[in-house]
Amino acid sequence: MPIDTWFPLAVYYEDLPDATAHKKQLMDAALQLEKDGYERRAFPEMAWTGDLHGAERIHTDPRFTWIVGQVESHVQGYLKGLGLDLNQIALYIQRAWPVISRYQQEVGSHCHNTSHISAVYYVSVPNSGSDEAGSLVFFDDMRPNEVSPGLGSENTNIIVEWNALNQDQAMYVPVEGRLILFPSKQRHGVTMNHTEGERISLSFDIVLAAKPGSAAGSYEFLLPPPEQWQRFGGRS
Ligand SMILES: [Fe+2]
């Protein structure tokens, strides 16, 4: 009795070969940005995230040049895998920031609503390869096989066996030196850091736009080139 499965979520990952050589510089830079940042705005049980604290442009910071190049290269590989014609598309890093999660801190579930592809790179992970420092969890809000809506909620015990056909989340343990790419609209979060160490990662939000003069007919589905935009009051 075959049961087919369809419509996969594509999550890309790669262990970067030069990770160890760059670890110290990236760690030091992330910790320095935290120190330089504004007064803490997040709740104590939430990880420190640069985007909330004035450190959301590490893509323009020379200390992060290596990882920015890696993100650019791997995002293109990811998009090719998704069947896109990169000749018609211009890619932008919209914002990028460090995340530092300490003992008993986590990142609640969220989507990156202003971008298209998100990346995370694990700079430093206590007990790397285990879930102890906090895993990245993707949530499936579509739930195509939840034939009676809500049946998988925590308020029922009707589902007695969690398997590949009814799973509503997918968990990635953090691995030092690993880059992960995923659609920004996919809801996700990071589980609690149970270690005494600092879990340091970098997040990137990437936007797709049409290249000027190409992608004709696609502007309903792809941002027009930002060069063609005009800010209010920008008439000369
Ligand atoms: Fe996120």
From TrEMBL:
Keywords, ordered alphabetically: Iron, Metal-binding, Oxidoreductase
Classification via InterPro entries: CHP02466 (IPR012668), Oxoglu/Fe-dep_dioxygenase_dom (IPR005123)
Domain Fe2OG dioxygenase: 40-208
A matching Pfam family: 2OG-FeII_Oxy_5
Classification via Gene3D superfamilies: q2cbj1_9rhob like domain
GO molecular function: metal ion binding; oxidoreductase activity
Similarity field: Belongs to the iron/ascorbate-dependent oxidoreductase family.
NCBIfam families with a match to the protein in the record: TIGR02466 family protein (TIGR02466)
Protein name (database record): Fe2OG dioxygenase domain-containing protein
Species whose genome carries this gene: Leptothoe spongobia TAU-MAC 1115
